[in-house]
């Protein structure tokens, strides 16, 4: 307990990235990678499919570690092996460029069968939420729609992926604010150009001059999550249509996704 308090005090003085590097989740032994699990990765997760063999092994190990340290609970639905594969992949994809990064701000993922309400309701009107990072009593919990989770990986030509979107929000939130300016990913030199690019891109969306999901114009945080989905789902298209944005995201995530031979 005293060690954690000392780390938190040091983090307040020197910056939150120290927490990311110093505080780890409790060690857990991951089970062996089964043939069926690996087959699902190859079938469902294009990001994994086009990694070289060494990187595939690294990805598998990190997926297994995530599953060993993060609870996944079905709410009015059964969590199937494919769901575990997709949730863990959505978690690892955006942090794959950082070998020692863990989601210290996540303990459990709740899987709902379909879209839900802002108050987590599964019945009634206005159930249009695909995923959500919890606040207050739901702190350190993520809620995902099972339907949306699967669709995000099934739709190979689309630019969206709910799991990646929500895990990018968690990355953004690590510095204490979900504001589209993740201190862990942004160098001092990139912070202002990135913010300027967000505002320029949001303006283009609102003027109907962009192919980026209009939901990205909601605010800076949603833009970051939406364009990150695009980056990992269709990096080729993003590079072609939004070259400067693409280059910034390469710098931030420290990787260049390859989704074709």
Descriptive terms for the model:
261 residues, alpha/beta, Collagenase (Catalytic Domain), four-stranded mixed beta sheet, 12 helices, disordered N terminus
How is the secondary structure organized here?
Elements lengths: L1 H13 L2 H6 L12 H10 L1 H4 L3 H17 L1 E4 L6 H12 L15 E5 L18 E3 L7 E5 H9 L7 H12 L14 H19 L13 H14 L1 H7 L1 H11 L8
Parallel strand pairs: 1-2, 2-4
Antiparallel strand pairs: 3-4
Strands of the largest sheet, in order across it?
Answer: 1-2-4-3
CATH architecture: 3-Layer(aba) Sandwich
Residue fraction in strands: 5-15%
Q: In whole angstroms, how far apart are the ends? A: 49 Å
The biggest sheet amounts to: 4 strands, mixed
Decide which structural class fits the backbone. Answer: alpha/beta
Mean pLDDT equals 89
Gyration radius from CA atoms, angstroms: 18 Å
Please tell me what the overall shape is.
globular
> What name goes with the CATH superfamily?
Collagenase (Catalytic Domain)
- Percentage of residues assigned to helices: 40-55%
Structural domains: how many:
1
Q: How many E-type strands? A: 4
CATH class, anyone? Answer: Alpha Beta
Helix count from the secondary structure assignment: 12
Quote the CATH topology. Collagenase (Catalytic Domain)
């Amino acid at each position: 307990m005293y060690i954690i308090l000392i780390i938190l005090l040091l983090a307040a003085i020197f910056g939150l990235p120290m927490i990311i590097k110093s505080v780890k989740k409790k060690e857990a032994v991951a089970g062996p990678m089964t043939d069926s699990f690996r087959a699902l990765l190859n079938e469902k997760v294009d990001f994994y499919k086009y990694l070289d063999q060494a990187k595939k092994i690294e990805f598998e190990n990190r997926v297994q570690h995530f599953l060993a340290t993060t609870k996944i609970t079905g709410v009015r639905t059964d969590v199937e092996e494919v769901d575990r594969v997709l949730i863990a992949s959505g978690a690892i994809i955006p942090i794959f460029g950082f070998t020692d990064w863990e989601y210290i701000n996540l303990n459990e993922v709740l899987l709902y069968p379909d879209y839900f309400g802002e108050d987590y309701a599964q019945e009634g009107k206005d159930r249009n939420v695909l995923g959500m990072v919890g606040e207050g009593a739901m702190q350190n919990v993520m809620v995902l729609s099972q339907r949306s989770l699967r669709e995000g990986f099934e739709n190979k030509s689309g630019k969206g992926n709910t799991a990646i979107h929500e895990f990018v929000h968690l990355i953004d939130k690590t510095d204490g604010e979900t504001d589209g300016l993740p201190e862990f990913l942004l160098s001092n030199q990139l912070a202002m150009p990135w913010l300027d690019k967000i505002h320029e891109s949001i303006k283009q969306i609102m003027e109907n001059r962009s192919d980026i999901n209009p939901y990205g114009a909601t605010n800076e945080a949603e833009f970051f999550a939406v364009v990150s989905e695009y980056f990992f789902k269709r990096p080729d298209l993003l590079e072609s249509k939004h070259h400067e944005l693409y280059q910034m995201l390469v710098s931030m995530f420290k990787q260049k996704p390859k989704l074709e031979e």
